[in-house]
## 1
Amino acid sequence: MINHNISEIDAQYVSLLTDHALALGQSVNLSAGGIHLSWMEVAIAATLLVINMLVSLFLQLGIARQLITSSVRMTIQLALIGLVLKQIFAIALISPVLVLAGVMTVIAGVSAVRRINTHYRTIYSTAIFSIWISSWIVTGITLLAILKPEPWYRPSVLIPLLGMVLGNSLTGISLGLERFLSEIKQNREKIETLLCLGATRWESCRSSMIQATRAAMIPILNTMSVAGIVSIPGMMTGQLLAGAEPMEAVRYQIMIMFVIAAAIALGTVTSLALAYRKVTSTQHRINWTELQTRNQ
Amino acid sequence: MTHQTLIEIRQITRTDLISNRIILHPTTLRINDGDRIGLVGPSGSGKSTLLRSLALLDPIESGNHLFLGEEVPSESIPKFRRFTTYLPQHAITFEGTVRDNLTLPFSFGVTTESYSEDGALMYLRKFGRDSTFLDLIATSLSGGEQQLMAFIRCLLINPNIILFDEPTASLDSETESQFENVLEDWFRNEDERQMKPRAFIWSSHDASQLDRLANRILTMNEGKIKEEGVAT
């Protein structure tokens, strides 16, 4: 199953966004409301894992070792990215910022494909290109027209913003491609019947494209519809924890929701258009041999 | 009297790209106006591959596919498939009523024609059904009824050539007989104001059925047309 939880992705960037708000000098006052977190306090939080361990042992789930491995891995990964970001923030030059942004984009593109069962040969380039185009365009507009940091590539703004956009875009692209390719594969006979009756390749695939676009947009639509009622979204949570004024945190959260929704829509449509061109032929048929199931 | 050649394939081949096995060896065939071609051969002999290649559903790896003496340009392939349609063994139904399924081919950009309820009713009566059949949910029909619906859907677009892939394999003998009678009416242009070119290929394992329907018999084996004969 593909992870739909947008708040989890947001949470990775909570501390960075706090940093961003501080960098902009806007309403964040750590001395007033922010609480400094030491490594000792993080260690105390880690002891909560005992609950998971006990559940695993009691129910004989057999995931105790996996829990420990995943926790250690997560801690090391985040600590390392923290060190990298600390250096890049300190240098504040455009080239390391763009290199890091590029690496993040490629990893997001590869991750988007990882959970798709039906593949075609160039699916990785489809995902990387789509996520690159959508995330960089939307992040660029946000930086240049909305947040306007000085300089525009200020790493404490660009990196966390791009990270949030990438995390959500990859989910949308992943869900969209998975649904589109599996719909095409499962509905082979229906699609061929439509073609035999005179449908163009677009007419025969339109239903699959619609299903796929809906599937990609559902998580952000759900998140937007329950934001503030069922859950306080990750970015807003981070700012509130850092002592931001609530309405300021709300404005940031609303802005980022619109940005994320636009990135998902753009990324999904781009990836589906590329996938459609790859799995269909200008001779109005499906390139069935292109479609391979993972591990086959 | 010479009949117009509708489709001609020259030295067409097909390879299964996954197993790299040749599934259609270089094949040459002409389908002329008035041809009633029976296609026989064991399972896996290449009958469906040949029919799919004729309908341009699979890529042409080598050789030529000509319709009325010319290769079909990519943009004209949907129109070509209104002239030459393929009816598979298992009928495919879409959501909605029988009427929704019958109107479907008229929603495509390739045609400016509109669905004729009278035409649909005429064919339904030939199968002993009335107008209530149009309001039934298509997916709830029996396999045989679904096949009738698929056949009527195919006839409503008024093709010149129909490629049948064992269409009556799942029908009872009475429905099979009705199916053949409707085919004869279509072939003889019984319901048309003007004579149109007509031809069909009927793939089947039933030799007696092909004797009834065909005037040419093609025997396929291991991806090759082994012999061509005249129906007795």
## 2
Amino acid sequence: MDRIPILKLGEALLVTIQVDMHDRLAMALEEDLTTRIVEHAAKGVLIDISALEIVDSFIGRTLANIAMIAKVLDAVTVVVGMRPAVAITLVELGLSLPGVRTALNAERGMAMIRALLDDNGLTSADES
Amino acid sequence: MAASTITIRSGEDVVRVRQEVRRTAIEAGLGLVDQTKIVTAASELARNTLDYGKGGEARMEIVQAGARRGVRIVFEDNGPGIADIELAMKDGYTSGKGMGLGLGGARRLCNEFAIESAPGKGTRVTIARWK
């Protein structure tokens, strides 16, 4: 089965969703990310959805689940790059993405993750 | 006018419905936000057809009323049907794995929405989005 690639970037994991995800692929991403967060003791997860043309209730639920699971595993999740038409549609659909932090683009998202880790005193310095 | 039918038997078919609705909406001249709304609504309904209706089909076409153009899609299955449509339309109500936004959410995203269903008779949902 297809898998969405997960990259490690320092203490964060980076996912760029570039395909129109069917439901099983979204579920596989949730599982894979959970495994990788533990494997790498990742502190942040950045999910770039700028290529996604829609976010329906299933994809939205998957993003919310990932954020909740990551939180339980002591990592923060930031979803970046949502298209304007997707944002309008999400709100009308009634999806509020509870617990999901968002940023306009990947650069701001990474800055947000770094700031959150700094606030919690979780920068790489305390790992040495 | 362009019309097409997609059989819904798997998750990949739901993706195919999204792509075909997008293509039809572009051909009908819908703007980006309207395209996104009807594709999202179609994704919710195609998933319902698969998960609750045990599979079925989506028939879509470009429709014209005077100078207005739009896209109309009919989702039909021969599944168990819905006993209480009013309850099923409510936000937060789900009998499965979704968020319970499928039917109510799809209705909010469209200009027209009609549902016909009865226990043992399957379900037919018709939606349209106009330019």
